[in-house]
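S.,

As promised, the iron/sulfur cluster run. Input:
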Amino acid sequence: MPPAKSLFDKVWDAHAVRELPGGQTQLFIGLHLIHEVTSPQAFAMLRDMKLRVRFPRLTFATVDHIIPTESQRRPFQDSLAEEMLVHLERNCREHGIRFFDAASGRQGIVHVIGPELGLTQPGMTVACGDSHTSTHGAFGAVAFGIGTSQVRDVLATQCLALDRPRVRRIEVGGKLGGGVYAKDVILHIIRRLGVNGGVGFAYEYAGPVIEAFSMEERLTLCNMTIEGGARVGYVNPDDITYAWLRGREYAPQGAAFERALAWWRAIASDADARYDDVVRLEGRDIQPTVTWGINPGQACGVSEPIPRLADVPAQARPQVAEALAFMGLVGGAPIAGTKIDVAFIGSCTNGRISDLREAARVARAGRVPARVRALVVPGSQAVARQAEAEGLPEVFRAAGFDWREPGCSMCLAMNPDKLVGREVCASSSNRNFKGRQGSPTGRTLLMSPAMVAAAALRGEVVDVREIL
Ligand code: SF4
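Predicted complex:
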């Protein structure tokens, strides 16, 4: 009998080309996703070295970070954004790479379109020049973000030199209460284990709560793995995974799908696989969760108070003090009732159709006050089309939200969607770092899309369960 293994070990071993003298593994990359921000320099380096893309059919491109969401007419008003897109178009053309541009009907945030096109599949290695590539682990892939020089390496060789991480299994038992979502689960995990708790680990998510998640919920969960310090996070593939993939454009078709299914089933973790660490959490302990600080681990349940300095360990006090000062919040005060100026629903964490459906369910219950700017930005053109077919833009508009074109929008604000001054934003995105949403003094409160919609209606942080 071969030794029992985790999915991570099976996928890693299946893609290992060789062990390198320094102890790293040369790993073959099955799917390479690129976008306009981290690829231009990589292509320039390739050109300087007079190299071609080694496997153009394994690389796919989209435009997401810089694309405006009000009007996507070319040329863009921002000449730098236009130039970045022109570079991407030229690089894809020159190297024979498939580019999902706005005219393709398949454009969107890279971590939204990969799964929806069926490009991301179980047992793959996936790399992209973007930290939130961990998203694709929802399918039982080993997926991680890479830097620009590594984008060059994958373009040139389809391989990367990597250190092998250890594997931590995180089990979430029981079930979630109403109004508690995958976003709350991952914020809870990061809060418990810390933003650096996963450094050197790949996270395997498991347990009844995770296994009951839809694919879109698993995508949200895996998306924020990197915010907990782990580069890789995955869920073992199961019937929910296979049902999602069947019939998708780039998934295997017909008999090839049945053959793939046998491999996908085989790569799931063995029941008696051993892990370097196991963490157990309970679904009933998780409530709608909101960040109060300047990293995603600085979070509390919506019914809890913001921590007081005296309540945190001495070594954490300087960071907590810095966060409270920046956010203008007071330790011991409730997070509920914190006033907001902006509400943002979108991003690769929570810009999918199920996110928009939940937010619309809340939006039906009221109207955004005039002083709050509220944006809904679908994660892709396909999400936008589906939302339009279901009449969701009308629901949002009737409640006072602005319905936009697909893109990263205010998640990173490399486009015209930005906070102004010290605005406070209730956001369904994944990072609340200082300056993340376009204003150096802008403040971000991370929460689920339903919680964002609720905050938009009330003009302050509120427990969505009061509305649902
Ligand atoms: S939505 Fe945000 S986190 Fe996701 S790819 Fe775009 S900028 Fe990065």
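The chain has a mean pLDDT of 97. The longest helix spans residues 79-95.

- D.
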